[in-house]
């Protein structure tokens, strides 16, 4: 599985944050990132998507958490597959 998206830093300071998700065993996993001032961190869309080793069926909604030292938020992310023509090339690029 892979996460496609972008995070934007509109501040004059570098931002550090983490993305959390539950792996197939139900354990919380964290991936840490930083974004330089006034920059965008892309996952997909001209760069590699963020590989997340989970098995989720298309059509499901997967909850991820994005947080930093100030707090966190939960996001419901739709799980898509190649059955939707607009995503066929993205899914094929994952090598699945």
Strand element count: 8
Shape: globular
Whole-angstrom Rg: 14 Å
* Share in helix: under 10%
H-E order: EEEEEEEEH
Give the DSSP E fraction (strand runs of 2 or more residues). over 45%
Number of helices: 1
Query: What is the CA-CA span between the terminal residues?
Result: 9 Å
What integer is the average pLDDT? Answer: 88
Q: Oligomeric status of the shown chains?
A: single chain
What low-confidence regions span 5 or more consecutive residues with pLDDT below 50? none
Q: Structural class of the secondary elements?
A: mainly beta
Q: Name the strands of the widest sheet in spatial order.
A: 4-3-7-8
Describe the main β-sheet briefly: 4 strands, antiparallel
Written overview of the protein:
The protein starts with a strand and ends with a helix. The longest helix has 5 residues, at 88-92. The chain is globular and about 40 Å long. It has one helix at 88-92, and strands spanning 2-3, 5-8, 15-22, 28-35, 40-43, 50-51, 61-68, 71-78. It is 5% helix and 46% strand. The strands form three sheets. Strands 4-3-7-8 form a four-stranded antiparallel beta sheet, with no helix packed on it. The protein is built from one helix and eight strands. 2% of the residues are buried. With 96 residues, the protein is mainly beta.
What's a concise summary of this model?
The chain has 96 residues and is mostly beta strands. It contains 1 helix and 8 strands, in the order ββββββββα.
Provide keyphrases for this structure.
single chain, 96 residues, mainly beta, four-stranded antiparallel sheet, 1 helix, 5% helix, globular
